[in-house]
Amino acid sequence: MVDVMSHLVRRRKDHTLEAPFYTDPDIFDVDMDVIFGRHWLFVGVEPDVAEPGDVMVVDVGKNSVLILRDDDEEVRAFHNVCRHRGARLVHEEKGTVGNIMCRYHSWVYNTEGELIHAEHMGEDFDKSCHGLKPVHIRSLEGLLFICLADDPPDDFDAMAEIMGPYISPHNIRETKVAYQHDLIEPGNWKLTMENNRECYHCGANHPELTVPLFAYGFGFAPEELSAEERDHADKYAATLTDNHKEWEAMGLPSREVDRLDDMVTAFRAERLPLAGAGESHTIDTRRACRKLLGNLTNAKAGGLHFWTQPNSWHHLLGDHAVVFSVLPLDAEHSLLRTKWLVHKDAVEGVDYDLDNLIGVWMATNQQDSDLVGYCQQGVRSDGYIPGPYSPHTEMLVEKFSNWYVERMKSHLSESRSVA
């Protein structure tokens, strides 16, 4: 078995990780234990389980978790495992239940996870001792996070206190999922996340995404700019400052907050202006949905970027929101799950055209998946050695890698001290 700690200790600052972090099944197993087994993971939105009895299943490695809304409107999460002989309970990703019945021996649980029916178990059998095993779940203004650990990180509230005012104007709870797309990316989950944390590659690879985005919003090398380019960069900086003031006067928190590598439940957010008509992530930069989110009255609310470690990023706009989660499948494959959210009363074909709504990110996701695949092919090679990050455009990739390395080292050090 590979010595994970030795690879972590050797990690060179501001450089990519050594190849085994992207290819080795043993390190993948440690990732699933330490990172995906002990941290808050973004898995969906409250509109996924909009009504009492609605249920959603999310698989995280070997663990299957069912998320449901109980009869009292509370969102709960449980291990998707019958307490009798371990059969999986809910087999479809989405559904609606009155109670949850195991197909094997017909044990029945209510939506609060209590065992309410089990035949032939004898007079001394106590149903109250055999309810579903709960999973920690928290909602951040409608964004759902779970933690599989018995004792989850205790700083979720710190993130929620800061991010709640940023997210709440978009009122995610009062949206619906207009479309969901699952894409299997041919790469390790860390390559998917690293790719997301920079836009160094955007100009050459994302013709659709770069239409609504300003080129200077994601880093650049000042010493390489011409006089004209410097002028454009200065104008963008002034626009950003002006927009932040304008949005915050409207009750839309906008200024950058970056806690990507100094918290356990790490995150980053900033509201950025959009190019062209300035309304949305669409090819024509105009709103994709006529009904705006929450109580917003102006589609020009910019694009709120919200990232969380280890597995999500989100774009909240005036007219819709797009949320992304990454779930590892094995050492070299990952599931990218994307959901497009619109106002719950918006009608497809009347208030929005689905192809227009999803077009930019459907194209961008596939382009990114191809790039991740190229990297996965490369890190398998004997010719791969860790390469340097750009100090101007890949600073946030370094923060992701540093967070990952420090979380792994912390847990492995604790395990060694206990042993």
UniProtKB/TrEMBL annotation:
It comes from the Bacteria. GO terms for molecular function: 2 iron, 2 sulfur cluster binding; iron ion binding; oxidoreductase activity. Residues 42-146 form the Rieske domain. Its cofactor is Fe cation. Keywords: 2Fe-2S, Iron, Iron-sulfur, Metal-binding, Oxidoreductase. PROSITE patterns: RIESKE. InterPro entries: Rieske_2Fe-2S (IPR017941), Rieske_2Fe-2S_sf (IPR036922), Ring_hydroxy_dOase_asu_C_dom (IPR015879), Rng_hydr_dOase-A (IPR001663). This is (Fe-S)-binding protein. It comes from Notoacmeibacter marinus.
